[in-house]
Amino acid sequence: MALRWLEGGQGCQNTTIFSRLYATVAGAVGSTLTDQFGRTVFDAATLVLTTGALAGAVQNTWVCGFRFNVTSGILDSSPSARPGVMLKNSVGEQVRIEAVDTTGTKPGGQKFKLRVMRGATELARTVEEFSQTASVNNWTYFEWKVTVNTSTNGSFSLKYHTHKSRNNTATWDAANTGVNTANQGTAGADRAVLSWDTGGTDRVSMTDIYLLDSSGSVNNDFLGEIYIEALDPDGNGTTTQWSLAGGAASLEDAINEAASIQSVAEDDKGVTSDVTGQIELATMSDLVLITNTTIVGIQVRMYGKMDTTGSRNIEFFYRKTTGSPAQVGSGKLLALSSTAFAGAADTLEQDPNTSAAWTIANINAMQLGFELDS
Predict the structure, then answer these.
(1) H or E element that contains 361
(2) Which residues contact 42 (CB under 8 A, 6 or more apart)?
């Protein structure tokens, strides 16, 4: 399987910036809060992020992981929307998993379950219940695996991890194999909807989101409970050939956008170049949370715009920790054709230097940047 997307909710907490990367953005970010690992994440009651196509072609099997907590209020029993994750093709929704209130007050507080939906049809919901009480101990990490297919060819399963136990397998109140999971009548999906929308004022937080599809062979099946840590540019890299612009005092000032603050002044700051082949690299902050574990992948996000009319392609660039040449492009491009901001993300399962799994030492030594490709 292949890692297609990551969303941690730390490096970006602003809908204007989200809109430069996601295909569509609706609703708003709620409040920031501290999770059980001391990270600043956000919650929301209306936010919906829809990715663009994540693969070159639709893929039948997907795995999605996400950390979830009800942070304010109690989920309504009959809301207009429910938070969760949806898989789509270019036509529309195929299948989704969402949180649903368990009616009545239960011992130990209000509970919720997860249910799988194909359009308006409920396929099954978990027998297990999960706490809605806002607490650092009530985050649950879910991993949903689904084969998107028609007739009796679809299936789904769920693992969950709590602060008390890991690698639990959920049970269902109806069949989860031999079912139709393709609402559009054709197999496969190629994009996702990440929804914090509760249909009311109750807020939820989702973080540490990953998406795998059935192509590739590096990250296969459930990854287990993952943690995402946002790293920011913090200084000049070895190669700095672009020019500071917009009143930026340094490279860090130019390209380190605040997670939750977006303004005209921040947008004006940047670096600029009109010379094909020029490279700009930045050093990055070191990992703090992730110190002794397997790295399943990284995602680098880049935003830019044209200063005037025309078009340019900007390539993601990485300074290698060893070997020659010292800096290499990944082949992923940010295509610019407007004076309005656009964004792109480069998701890498392996270190481009070693063609092997990332290591903590190599990430901490890495420099990230971009080249004016054409």
Answers:
(1) helix 360-365
(2) 9, 13, 29, 30, 31, 32, 33, 205, 260
Burial of residue 219 (CB within 10 Å: 0-12, 13-18, 19+) is: buried
Do residues 86 and 107 touch, judged by C-beta distance below 8 A? no
Tell me how far CA of residue 295 lies from CA of 3, 91, 223, 337, 357, in angstroms. Answer: 12, 34, 10, 35, 7
What distances in angstroms separate CA 248 from CA 86, 234, 238, 284, one per listed residue?
Answer: 40, 14, 19, 18
User: Do residues 198 and 79 lie in contact, with contact meaning Cβ atoms separated by under 8 Å?
Assistant: yes
pLDDT in tens, 210-233: 999 999 889 999 999 999 999 999
Q: What is the pTM of this model?
A: 0.95
Peptide bond into 325 cis (omega under 30): yes
What is the helix, strand, coil percentage profile of the chain, to 5?
A: 5, 45, 50
Q: What is the DSSP letter of 172?
A: B
Q: How far is 202 from 199, CA to CA, in rounded Å?
A: 8
